[in-house]
Amino acid sequence: MKNCTRQEKIRLNMGKDGWSNYSPNGELYTFQLSDGPIGLRHHGENGDTEPSIAYPSMQMLSHTWDMGLVERYAEALADDCIDHGVDILLGPGVSIKRLPTCGRNFEYVSEDPLLAGVVGYHYIHALQGRHIGACLKHYCCNNQETERYWISAEVDEQTLREIYLKPFEIACKAEPWTVMSSYNRVNGVQVNEDERLHRILREEFGFDGTVISDWWAVHRPSKAVNAGTNLIMPYDEKTMEKLMSAEDIDDSALEENNRRVIALAEKCEHAKTLRQSKLTILERRQIAQEIEENGIVLLKNNGILPFKDKETVLPIIGNAAEQYYRGGGSSEVKPELPYEKLHESLQKCGATGAHFAWNDETGTLQNCVKEAKTAQAVIVAVGNSHIVEAEEKDRETLRLTKEEEFYIHTLAKENKNVIVVVYAGAPIDMSTWIDEVGAVIWAGYGGDMVNRAVAEIILGEVNPSGKLTETFPLALEDVPAYCTERTAESVYYSEKRAVGYRYFATEKKAVLFPFGYGLSYSEFFYKDLQIEEQEDCFDVIFTIENTSDRDGKEIAQLYIGSPETNYFELKGFTKVNVPMHSNRQAKITVDKSLLQNFDVEENAWKPYEGRYEFRVGKNCMDISLRKERVF
């Protein structure tokens, strides 16, 4: 673009409308952005959301711990984008799950920065490999929805670096086309105005793309432009007036912002010539179902599962069995398929006796209780709708509704084999009823194919292999972040690095389910730990034995830390297929760059020094193998 006036250069800093960039005189390619880290939320010409495949949430994707599935997920989404003319998909979200009450936790990967960063990396790599731009978000410390436009995350430098910035550092290695700055402030400074955070992103993380503001996040546009926010979204008349009348916009910042917006438009224009949809709609649905099958977590099982007698009467109750449960907000996808109810899925999988029992108009439990007394098992479907878990608000409790808890208690008195299926996007407090039921299945927000996958797990056609990527506390009050100081303007991260399992495992604090937890229909044992040091990494080698009569997949996790402090962190993981009655050797490679702490005084990362222990196990609190090394 040549001979642009200053006003035209300023105009280029803001979008044309809600979902595209401004093109002066039509000289610049107009790229299209769309919501949809977990399914395309694309707006048609009339402004309505167009139907699309609803994929499992990012939480459920992360439960697979399978980077091959992460990449297939992103490739399927890329084809959705190609079909709808979308250039940039607003995802993935790698913000840390500091609080289990955060309304958008279903959109995020984990409480652990390594896992969040690695999933983000593979998602971006695969999406952009199909010539669709990714938008890594929300940079950074967007860990609650309450007062998100103004709240300041007061966080110390070591915690900021090791916990909240680390996922972005790892994911940026995939070279995302864009990064989205978050709404909130960090240590008193609005993120889109924070020159230091932008400098870390550029100079330390190597990000060379375009920084986009979150929608309506910019309050002082000239400061945002000067700090390095390249594109303000969406178009807003009042914000544009502030921009045009500003006298403090730095010329060099303006030129740099223009350069990056133009470069992004040119990249999208070139990418469009390379795009070709490869997967059919059926193949994409199959990918969605496979991810859900691998992401479902079996939380409890008294032996009733898998349910083998398909002809036995199997009553099902609960609204979640009949209604599509998903998270609310910008990730809310309009499914293209009619919702397949749980009893329909079970029947299609051969369970002829499965039926919905909650069918009386009064909503009483009378019919269900009568059936529960004679049934071999009863399925109770519970969870949170998009009204409960949604953008712009946080949950006030981890408990289910009183009605849901009441009918779990009531039915459990009549039948020891109550199977609870939970449809939600973040931890649920099950402490009042978990000991009364026979089995618990975490279905999460599973998208279009959720109930088909749940049915296959119940009937044993699929062996569950998913494991949790966040801690399920016994009570909300047990979470350190919940108990820290807050004001109307600030929230103090005084728990520091004691986020999630880092606190519970170190303090040996009881939890409902620990980070990394998940049951299988197979039995696995670990043995023969070896550590081989290479020039730039450690190879951690061990054997997994499957002693059961079923083939299964096991997710082994590596934690490294200091025995003196008992502070251990996830440093690697692997998912291994192990046939029944056999062994498989597993290997986790740990780059030495991960074995560092941030030194605040020197403002630099320092390698580990001293005695450290390598721990391999099924989850953070179930460790099978240990070996020490001195650094």
Number of helices: 16
Largest sheet: 6 strands, mixed
User: Strand order, biggest sheet?
Assistant: 9-14-13-12-10-11
Gyration radius, in Å: 25 Å
Distance between the termini: 55 Å
Can you give the helix content as a percent range? 25-40%
Using the alpha-carbon principal axes, give the shape. globular
* Strand elements, count: 24
- Beta percentage is 15-25%
Low-confidence stretches: none
Which secondary-structure class do the elements indicate? alpha/beta
The overall pLDDT average reads 96
Briefly, what is this?
The strands form six sheets. A six-stranded mixed beta sheet has the order 9-14-13-12-10-11, sandwiched between helices. Strands 1-2-3-5-8 form a five-stranded parallel beta sheet. A four-stranded mixed beta sheet has the order 7-6-4-15, with no helix packed on it. 27% of the residues lie in helices and 22% in strands. With 631 residues, it is an alpha/beta fold.
Give structural notes:
The chain has 631 residues and is an alpha/beta fold. It is built from 16 helices and 24 strands. The strands form six sheets. The chain has a six-stranded mixed beta sheet with strand order 9-14-13-12-10-11, sandwiched between helices. The chain has a five-stranded parallel beta sheet with strand order 1-2-3-5-8. The protein has a four-stranded mixed beta sheet with strand order 7-6-4-15, with no helix packed on it. A hairpin with a 2-residue loop joins strand 23 (611-619) and strand 24. Helix 3 crosses helix 4, helix 3 (67-84) packs antiparallel against helix 11 (281-295) and helix 12 packs across helix 15 (450-459). The protein is globular, with a radius of gyration of 25 Å.
